[in-house]
Amino acid sequence: MENNTITYLVQEVIPEAEDVVTLRLRPLQNVIPPYKAGQFITVFFPETGHKEGKSYSLSSSPNESGMSITVRGVGTFSNKLIAKKIGDTINGSLPYGYFYSESEANAMILVAGGIGIVPLMSMIKCSRKVFPRRKIILLFSNKTPKHIIFRNELNELSRQSDGNLVVEYYLTQEMPKMEEKKGRIPVSDIFRCYEDFTDSELFICGSIEFVRDYWRGLKGAGVPVEKIYTEAFF
């Protein structure tokens, strides 16, 4: 993969939440490579000792004029990445990966934990632009309100959706003050959404434990495993 790298120019650095930034990127060749909402690129910093690089999901939609990755600063590699400034360059791969919708019409039920919102945000933006009548339900878990990534943008997309995008926030370490709910996302909440839209695709993204627990819970509740798409962030 590293032998097939391209160079990305950092065009904008956008603070999103505590220790999270979005890097707006454009290939130096000035041609946006094709990709699907939900895919990622691998970034290479050989000097960190990670010769294989690390993967970061695209938070942009394929119909945008540029590309973006949204990164939480955890560890040397990610902190080096979020320290990039406008005009800096990054060596990375072309977009790839298999975490994306295979439908144009079926409802999507999205379950995100923290930074796991990133590829789901790409799916939401793409669907709202290309398939605006598609029903999307997002259940989004965070520690506290200050950890909620894309909150303003999600709320605005929901407001403009005529009820086709529903966003539910859950807080695990702080009492709700606005529209959030307290605690982890109950499997019963997800399954209730599935019962309303049994033809839906169900996407789960977050930490390994987050994804594992919800996959097991939904499988145990009777959701067919072929309808559950997962991606775990390390």
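That was protein one. Protein two is written in the same sequence-then-structure order:
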Amino acid sequence: MTRIRTSLILITLSIAAFALSACGSNKPVTHGDSEGIYVNAGPLYYQVQLSRELNPQSVEDREYLADLPAGTTPPAADEEWFGVWMRVENDSDRAHLAASRFEIVDAQGNRYQPIQLPQTNPFAYQAVSVQGKSGNGQPVLPDPDSAAGTGPVQGSLLLFKLRTSVYSNRPLDLEITPPEGGSPSSVELDL
């Protein structure tokens, strides 16, 4: 019984120490070592929900690739469609514009910009104003009641066309530049 009690006390103290160490830091997180970590870019928080190659032959992926802008060419033999699903949160009391500038950067310094998907694609990321907690709208993007918000990923799609050489040039970082300017924040993609 004493060993169990000692173990419980040690576990409780470990949890308390971890919680207290987290409370002392107000420094914004500007780099995530993997997806799922919230990073600050300006006043908003960005979380990569998922990133993966898209297969145009897949029924699910065809929906993500709907309504590509006119003149968008399909990937060449050494390219692929790549999706990054993003969630944005506003913990402040007032509305802020979401970032519109994203880039994937590989270990060789190659940069890839997303293809601007039209608003007719219900999964497309749109750089809109995200309401604050005291506003009338949702303090999160995508809207939880939208197709992107209720879908299996619960994020808005950023669509990239990447060279397949990125698999040899890992890690890949998604850079998020705040609309107000300043240094970009980044998330290492799970590729």
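Residues 97 and 129 are 4 Å apart (CA to CA). Keep this in mind for the problem set.
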